[in-house]
Amino acid sequence: MKHFSGTTGRMKVKGIRQIDITNTLNSLNESGQSYSSLTRYAGVLSLMFDDAVSNGLAGSNPAKGALKVRKRETKEKRVLTEQEEQRFIEFVKNGSNYKGYAPMFIAGFGTGMRIGEILSLTWKDIDFKNGSISVDKTLCKVSDYVKQGGKTYFTITTPKTKNSIRDVPMLGKVRETLLEQRKDRDKLNAISIDGYKDFVFTGRTGNVFYSENIRTAIKRIVGRINKAEAAAAGAEGREPVVFEAFSPHCMRHTFATRCYEKGVKEKVVQKILGHSKIDMTLNVYTHTTDEMIEEDLRKLED
Question: Taking a C-beta distance cutoff of 8 angstroms, is the pair 284, 251 a contact?
């Protein structure tokens, strides 16, 4: 399968262990793959290894029991209000510790791309002339327990469906921040992954960001926001307004919600998000905020 071509797909059948498949599935989960997709991948692999065992190509089936990811309870996705989104971005832009993450967050909230797609972007994918971003790959971080003793490394894979390969419009705020980001090109050749280089979003050392890295950064940034808010509220004699934590994937849902608020048609959003079915897009639209509910209900009084 294409999602394993850059990891276990490079290994000999007899050398693949359960931990190798588990780590690849975990990485795909972090990059945004659904539990149902992971279950399907594990099932196909299990059938393949059953055949390998039957034909003497493998001693056992390492795919059995390899899926360690637990199915998450279905719950309302965290969607940031427009005020929360602006507050978060401004806090990151003005802070010294996480200022370097600001362009990536602006792109995340401004394009609706999956986190793995954002982090895999190279400057060849950015078309300033036509105002679009080409999406045709995703970045994963995996572990190789056979060849590298558990050492982690990055790999580039193709998107989950053909609909995921698309061009995303570049909004003004995204274009502006990417143009600014492009001025600092001293780190562009610091890392090469599967033949790709000149990544758009890199850290201070020139290495690419990865999904868990972003998840941790968000958690710490939100912690700093709430700490600052608690201090301000204490000085003003009021209750602090707590900023709820969110995952990297919530930027995608927030973008879709902004589209809904501005009246963007569902089919347009479907194409931008790379959804294969309109039902997936409509499901995103069900994650409404209290402000959206109140505004729509006011229309009944008009």
Answer: no
* H helical segments located in 237-277: 250-261, 266-273
How buried is 123 (Cβ within 10 angstroms: 0-12 exposed, 13-18 middle, 19+ buried)? middle
Give the integer Cα–Cα distance in Å for 38 and 36. 5
Q: How long a stretch of residues is the chain?
A: 302
User: Nearest 10 degrees: CA dihedral of 10, 13, 16, 18?
Assistant: 130
Dihedrals phi, psi of 152, to nearest 5 degrees: -85, 155
Model pTM score: 0.72
* Cβ atoms of residues 48 and 62 within 8 Å: no
For the stretch 256-290, pLDDT in tens is 989 988 888 889 999 999 888 887 777 766 555 55
Q: pLDDT band for position 187 (50/70/90)?
A: low
Q: Which two tokens stand for residue 259?
A: 């589209």
- DSSP annotation of 288 reads -
Distance separating alpha carbons of residues 87 and 95, to the nearest angstrom: 12
- 78-107 per-position pLDDT tens digit: 899 999 999 999 999 998 788 999 999 999
Give, for 138, the enclosing helix (H) or strand (E).
Answer: strand 138-144
Amino acid of residue 8? T
115 HSE (CA, 13 A, CB side): 26
Nearest to 34, CA basis, from 114, 148, 93, 109 = 114
DSSP 13: G
Can you tell me the distance from the alpha carbon of 190 to that of 206, in angstroms, rounded to the nearest whole number? 5
Backbone angles phi, psi at 31, to 5 degrees: -85, 0
pLDDT for residue 44: 81
- Tell me if 32 sits within 8 A of 253, measured CB to CB: no
